[in-house]
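Our consortium's second objective concerns turning raw sequence data into structural hypotheses that experimental partners can test. To show how far this objective has progressed, the report includes one record in full. It was chosen at random from the queue rather than selected for favorable results. The single chain below, 254 residues long, was entered without modification.
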Amino acid sequence: MVRQETGGAHLNRLEDIQRLYAVLGRLGRRLGGSRRLDECSGRMAWPARGVYFFFEAGEERSTSGDGPRVVRVGTHALTAGSRTSLWQRLSQHRGVARTGGGNHRGSIFRLLVGEALHRRAGSPLRSWGTGSSAGDAARMLGVERSVVREQEHAVEASVSDLIGSMPFLWILCDDAPGGASVRGIIERNAIALLSNFEREPIDPPSPAWLGTFSARDRVRGSGLWNNNHVDEEYDGSFLDVLVAAVENTPPTAP
């Protein structure tokens, strides 16, 4: 069932999406362009905390204008007392550069992408997303841990290749961890704004988008590698908060 929007509501959402991309365009110029995770390291000058926006090859805007469309919005350290840094979260998504492996149980982004990859290949992996570790999955499935690790490694490596190749932008937003943080406001409202879940689509995914193979109707319906906030309404005032955060993000040489 599609969420009903009046003509005015649809136009307002379109205008807000256009404004969001205009702000991200300004951010891109401020950062000297997007980066790719497979080209990044912890030695780079990352802000302690922030919000990130990922794009994906072949995924273009078709309603709101020209250029790549956002496929994932995320942040980190939304739990009071959390000490996770922006780079730590990004590196969890990237995986282990040296081996090409990774841990999808520590990154919902990796979990969603990997799930779609093995579903597209027609070879569902029962251990994927099962338990909090490979050992847990092995016990739950009644197999050896080494079997789980071996089967999962090939998918983890493919996930690392795919996510590592995705361009992304980030903003500095160094407020205290907590559910009411500015980072949380930007993340959930940007996801809700961009999501096409149960509403008239704006910038829908391409027919070839990997996310169409996701087992999650929220991923397929939203057109985003996000599972949370895709079914929520957004508050357009967050765009003013985003603008301020972009202006506070230090310019970076390309």
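The partners drew two points from this record. The mean pLDDT is 93. The two ends are 45 Å apart (CA to CA). Both points have been shared with the crystallography group to help prioritize constructs.
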